[in-house]
Amino acid sequence: MSVRKLKPVTPGQRFRVVNGFDAITTDKPEKSLLAPLKKSGGRNSQGKMTIRQKGGGHKRRYRVIDFKRDKRDVAAEVKSIQYDPNRTAFIALLAYADGEKRYVIAQNGLQVGQQVVSGENVAPEIGNAMPLAGIPLGTIISCMELRPGQGAVMARSAGTFAQLMAKDGKFVTVKMPSGETRLILSGCMATIGAVSNSDHQLLVSGKAGRSRWLGRRPRTRPVAMNPVDHPMGGGEGRASGGHPRSRNGIPAKGYKTRSRTKSTNKYIIERRKK
């Protein structure tokens, strides 16, 4: 992983930091694993805007990712590491021994030509997927399920990872990327290794236009609005805006929004750090 700082030949390039893409091996996606992706522009089925600051952006095609890793005990060879415009992590194209091809989230250190396998009795090596019950304590893991058979939902973005801390009966204790420590059923699948593209956090877009390419529209500061538009709007002159809160009045910056009666609270051992 590496990043490149561009020469200031234009104002937009002056502060721009781009990904070196040295881990990428091809720029041609697997056609059989592509699906069309329609833009909503933040509108719902009635055509009403439900999410602001969305719209435009470059046309994309969805890469169908295998989050379940349910092809058990069949070895697969890593054919290529590719860029995915729909996520921050890189993806790996696997070719199984029976001829099937699938995309998976690529882990840090995954190499072309490497063999990976999913199953209960596999070695805890980078790229292999296995139930949490069979993973040694202290192992760095990613792409975890929250319910067995659900498919990976946690630790999927660039550079993220969790750590297996303890095992107790049908539950294991996992330290999450947020710092939260929680219990997860030991039958849930996880992949060995941290997610690829850990340098993603170092990138600098350089200009506002790149946000538009990504489908993000301009955002109006709440303190610049009128009182009818936002709780922080209004005031004479350059008013600071009062207590930070959302458009519908929910306080920000430290206000806890998680329900105290949520049924899954009993699985959280230690809350995430503030």
Can you summarize this structure?
The protein is mainly β and 274 residues long. The chain has one helix at residues 208-213, and strands at residues 3-5, 17-19, 34-36, 61-63, 76-82, 91-96, 101-105, 115-116, 129-131, 140-142, 162-168, 171-175, 181-185, 189-192, 268-270.
Description:
The protein has one domain (3-201, 264-270): Beta Barrel (OB fold (Dihydrolipoamide Acetyltransferase, E2P)), CATH 2.40.50. By secondary structure, the chain is mainly β. It starts with a strand and ends with a strand. A hairpin with a 2-residue loop joins strand 11 and strand 12 (171-175). The radius of gyration is 22 Å and the shape is globular. The protein has 1 helix and 15 strands, in the order ββββββββββββββαβ. A 7-stranded antiparallel beta sheet has the order 9-14-10-11-12-13-15, with no helix packed on it. Strands 7-6-5-8 form a 4-stranded antiparallel beta sheet, with no helix packed on it. A two-stranded antiparallel sheet has the order 1-2. The mean pLDDT is 95.
Classify the secondary structure makeup into a structural class: mainly beta
Q: Give the mean pLDDT.
A: 95
Hey, roughly how much beta strand do the residues contain?
A: 15-25%
What composes the largest sheet? 7 strands, antiparallel
Number of domains: 1
CATH topology: OB fold (Dihydrolipoamide Acetyltransferase, E2P)
Taken in chain order, the helices and strands follow as EEEEEEEEEEEEEEHE
Q: Please list the strands of the largest sheet in the order they lie side by side.
A: 9-14-10-11-12-13-15
| Shape descriptor | globular
CATH architecture designation: Beta Barrel
Rg calculated over all Cα atoms? 22 Å
Overall helicity: under 10%
> What is the name of the CATH class?
Mainly Beta
Through-space gap between termini: 29 Å
Poorly predicted spans:
none
Please name the fourth-level CATH homologous superfamily.
Nucleic acid-binding proteins
Q: Provide a count of the helices.
A: 1
Q: Count of DSSP E strands? A: 15
